[in-house]
Amino acid sequence: MNGDALEELLGDPYDGSNPTGHAAIVAADDAGEPCAAGEAVLDAWQANAEYVPAELGGRLTAVDELVRRLRPVFRRDAGLGLGHGLTTLMASLNVWAAGTAEQRKHLAGRLLAGERVSVAYHELEHGNDLTRNALRAERRGNGFVLDGTKRVINNAGRARAAVVFARTADPAAAPGGRDHSLLFVDDLDRVPGLTRLPRLRTSGLAGCLLAGFGFDGAVVGEDALVGAVGTGAETALRSFQVSRCVTAGVGTSLLEGALFGVYRFATERVLYGRPVTAIPHARSVLAGAFIDLQVAQALARVAARALHLYPSVAGRYAAAAKYLAPKITENALADLAVVLGARGYLREGEYAFVGKHLRDIAGLSIGHAGGVSCQLTVLPDLPGVRPTGAEGALFDDSPLPELDLGELRVRAGRADPLLGALEGVADDELRAELASVRADAAALPVTERGVTASHRSLALTERYAWLLAASACLNSPRAADPQWTDAVLERIGLRSGRTTERTSTAALDAAYQDMADRAATGRSFDLDPEPVLRALA
Amino acid sequence: MNSPDSTTVDVTPADVAAWLVERIAEYREAPAAEIDTTVPLAELGLDSVYVLSLCGDVEDKWGLVVEPTVAWDHPTIDALAVHLHGEIAS
């Protein structure tokens, strides 16, 4: 299957008899189980092929294209998208980045056969602090002996293989960045001393099968090692950049799906003798969420394209996008729930999925890399950050050069092409904000540039991320439409807390009309619309 | 490619080490004399995020875009200074 048919395979989400529609998905979520019919569709579509580079027989070429192709599933169910396999990508990226030709080929074969791979970084005691990971892999003979526990690992109960982040350095020695290594452990059921731990239930992403691995003298061969001993952190920090961009991007589809649902509700629901869509407050919330979606997608898309075009600074954009895009999405979803009113709290009915999306986005924000850990990636970069020239290809849909994971850097330099591109298009307010962020960052004392930074200093990373979002929007092809640009600028000012609402609603009215036209003609609300199988009531 | 804020001519490894000591003393809020240049950076109380920040200082001062991997592979001030000096000189 070529991968273009996913929307058709998943069918109309509002058809109550559709086994992959909203009703079935909400029922599975309530039961705390993956949506079986949805997993079957993703298997038939060979979702795993999306995670395998084209040169190894898969369909992965560009990261922004991957996000685009996963939209249909994330519009409907983030738990399904993540649970079925996005974590397989997160695991595999390490092998694509640092594995031998043999390992890459072997893993590609596993994925193309539909097998899942778990990504075992997380230890409950250490959260996102990778350097403190304690699971031990001791070299013995022709391999490693593993002792320790990994928890909150997606698909740990059923994956065929796992990529495990393990301490290979002497635990008594002073900690450093070369303490850990990555191991690609295949055929988990055949590894002596390895047990699959019980499932952990969660409030969001309830259908994800999170569990753990226990290693008790588990023996794996030398061939499990991915890259050299001691390169685990380096490889993981490169892979994260890709998975952060993907997570930021697909997360916006929760807002896309919910926005259509709430708009659909508002067109059919009559209050005070008129449809909800005729109530100005509801209209402005809907139009605002529509703009929020475009802003979040513009940011996530630029971050994904930067992986290809500006790999040396892409890590900073990935972290900024992973911080801000889910936050924009979550805030907009919370606003939309207000329009649903009492229905926003119901676990049943046609719109129960909106509440589910709201629960799921929180999990997507925390999972993999929490907000603060992303902010701490950005903060030390900001003092001295320097706008430089940028290619137009960062912002459009033109074909990208191949992704070279080896070109991604563990730390981005001071050069900043996105800020450079902003300088050329910014209005006076944004230009002043850019100058202010640079000046405030430069003035940060050294103790305010890292883990000990106050919330005030950390807030600079959010202001920086909003500047990136503004650059992404103002340089996008959509910016040819002055009303769209106007709406976006107002929204960014408002959402970043920098400006207050304008008195003229012309730009927001135009955005509302665009949204209504798309809803009526079966086109999605995305920055780049696509056909969608759903209709107004 | 950058514009370092001081001339890099005639810089010695000892100069680079002294500059690193100053940075780290400032961060640790400790006298420079108390900073041991021969022990692993982690023993000086430096976390992974600070190392990112230090890399930024290196870029601003010497015009070198460096990654934390440099500090991982040369984990004492003396070793780091020798390595950075080699990069500055070339």
TrEMBL record, chain A:
Family: Belongs to the acyl-CoA dehydrogenase family.
Domain of life assignment: Bacteria
Coiled coil: none
Keywords from the named record: FAD, Flavoprotein, Oxidoreductase
Domain Acyl-CoA dehydrogenase/oxidase C-terminal: 230-367
Domain Acyl-CoA oxidase/dehydrogenase middle: 120-215
Entry cofactors: FAD
Species, as recorded: Prauserella endophytica
Taxonomic lineage: Bacteria, Bacillati, Actinomycetota, Actinomycetes, Pseudonocardiales
Gene3D superfamilies: Acyl-CoA dehydrogenase/oxidase, N-terminal domain, Butyryl-CoA Dehydrogenase, subunit A, domain 2, Butyryl-CoA Dehydrogenase, subunit A, domain 3
Protein name: Acyl-CoA dehydrogenase
InterPro entries listed in its UniProt record: Acyl-CoA_Oxase/DH_mid-dom (IPR006091), Acyl-CoA_Oxase/DH_mid-dom_sf (IPR046373), AcylCo_DH-like_C (IPR036250), AcylCo_DH/oxidase_C (IPR009075), AcylCoA_DH/ox_N_sf (IPR037069), AcylCoA_DH/oxidase_NM_dom_sf (IPR009100)
UniProtKB/TrEMBL annotation, chain B:
Protein's UniProt keywords contain Lipid metabolism: no
Keywords, ordered alphabetically: Phosphopantetheine, Phosphoprotein
InterPro entries with a match to the protein in the record: ACP-like_sf, PKS_PP-bd, PP-bd_ACP
Sequence intervals crossing the membrane: none
Signal peptide: none
Keyword Phosphoprotein included in the entry's annotation: yes
Matching Pfam families: PP-binding
Domain Carrier: 11-88
Protein name: Acyl carrier protein
Organism: Prauserella endophytica
Source lineage: Bacteria, Bacillati, Actinomycetota, Actinomycetes, Pseudonocardiales
